[in-house]
Amino acid sequence: MRDLIGYLLKRLSWMLLTLWAVYTVSFVLMRSVPGNPFSGERSVPPAIERQLKARYNLDAPPLQQYWDYLVGVVTRFDLGWSTRLEDYSVNQVIAEGFPVSVTLAIFALVFAIIFGITAGVISAVYRRSTADVMLMAAAVFGIAVPNFVIASLAILLFVFMIQLFPAGGWGTLSQVALPAFCLGLPVAAYIARLTRTGMLEMLTRDHVRTAFAKGLPKRTVIMRHVLPGALLPVVSYLGPAVARVLTGSLVLEKIFALPGMGSHFINAATQRDYTLAMGMVLTYTVLLFAMNTLVDLAYAIIDPRVKLQ
Amino acid sequence: MSSSITSGGPVRSGGNATEEALERLLAESREIRGVSLWQDAFNRLRRNRTAMISLWCLVLLATAAFMTPLLPLQSPIDKDLNNRRFLPPNLQSVVLGGRPGLKFKDGKLTSELAKFEASLAGTQKKLIEATDLETQQKLSNEIESRIAVEHPFNQMWNNLGGVAWWMCKVRVAVFGDYAIPSLFGTDKLGRDLLARVFWGARVSLIVGIVATLVSLIIGVSYGAIAGYFGGRVDAAMMRFVDMLYSIPFIFVVIFLVTFLGEETVKQELASYGIDQITIFYIVIGAIYWLTMSRVVRGQILSLRHEQFVEAAKTVGASSWRIVFRHLVPNVLGVVIVYLTLTIPSVMLFEAFLSFLGLGVSPPDVSWGLLLNDGVEALSIVKVFWWVVVFPGGALAATLFALNFLGDGIRDALDPRMKNRD
Known about the structure:
By secondary structure, chain A is mostly helical. In chain A, 77% of the residues lie in helices and 0% in strands. By secondary structure, chain B is mostly helical.
């Protein structure tokens, strides 16, 4: 238990350090752009410009701004105001986009894990069969082809040619299915390969031979004695998988026009909405850190040989 | 073998027989060729059929991309909004410079080129006849500015470099006005997709190679220095890498690209002679060096107490020389394996950013940008499949080949795979 708390504290301090570094770098970059966010547009009367600057706290000296924002984030979790979306705070934008992105990510991950492990087990158990060759070819395809290519082809096929899914929108299961499939496919392919390698290695172990020798049915041996060991690499891949799904959702939300965090982030980046973009980067950092810590914990629970450090 | 010497020696008298036996031995040993690590790896790679097919495909692709200006393609940037929007793949013949809107003489590039050169001829003649330096300077400036503004090539191709300009000239001289028909169809602005896929290949491949080289240089030097000096230097340097690892880089890079895309920043950078695409290469390269540095550091750590390092130290080699002349060549195998895995991910990242509208910006073309155009065109009621399928296919095939080749090279350089097939 003390291990655990120590570990969590250590991770937390790393996260804070990282966040501080990301914040400082983004702040310096943001402030080194000449002018202010409103100078590019049509010229506004000086009085209004003063009002604008006061609202976004741009009239304070840079160090004061740096400190104020930091205090706001630490004490109130207040990420400031978006400079492009009228009357939206960054927190509101994130609160709107977060559920969409998380739902999409969860669907994609669940699909990837189920599909990937099943494919990996089948191709390892029936090694060198047609099914194995086909599944592994599909896995190479899934790893090599970028997910936005898969998504565009999937739209072409399943939305326009065979009208199976709606083209866009958000809310129903059939609207989530296609983006989640495209998002999960590369991860599923990777998991399938990892599972297959792990299974093949475990199948040659002594305890598996013993299990077969004492007459257990094949099904029991594979489910009880082979699969748990074979899944260890898969569990450790889940951390990178989460990162991959989150970055992948940037493009997929754009392609399918979903109102998630990813599409907000891309819009913020293309429209040079610095406060929103910075708030998003900080949020993503926290998210990834939290997910990685969870995965590490899960790994330590599954495999007692692993010590948290 | 040794038995033949001992048995053959005493029976025949004299040293002649021993010499003969020795000679035979030597001849035999001369026949045996030592196989270097690289040769061995290459032999193993050659036996891997998928890897070899991938290698040839990639060589072909690289050659085609390099030779693009020489190929009889249509113009990648000439728009025709009236007659040629979203033409499906077809075999209709096309004349280069034939669009009425261009107002080329006779509707041909060659005639226009001849006309332009004829109009320049007068000035050029004056330039040759001119005697004083000032007039010469003035006239050559005039010629240069006219070429920059009025030359018909500027309407057909975008921003040609020196070599590409010369290649385009050769192409016009050899093929004249002939251009391959729009085999891949045309896009929403009536531009030929075949030409755009070819010109996009240049950008995508160059990004892949240059960014990988940047990451190679940073990663290998960083890892080698950390590994060689060890101790506190190593700990500090690797802690820094750990911290960078925990930053979600894609998001930070997008933020950075946003910043670099700002007009004022662009102008400032341009005043130092750096254009946006160079920054783009460096930024991508700068985020892919982390794993490379870790791998190299691990290898160097295990090598730095080897005898050849001691020997180099004894003869007074500097640390710099030991690291870069003695240690780095020894980790080349790992570096190459990792390199083949970096190139596809860098190309993918370029396509990803361009697809989001944050990477290569028009009128330059890259595969990611073409795909972006394609996906935008998809949302229209009619299905324009060719605008997605061809650029997507090109990108997917290249990444496919690179992945297979990477796997092949990794297996080939792995000594455990020796004599296994």
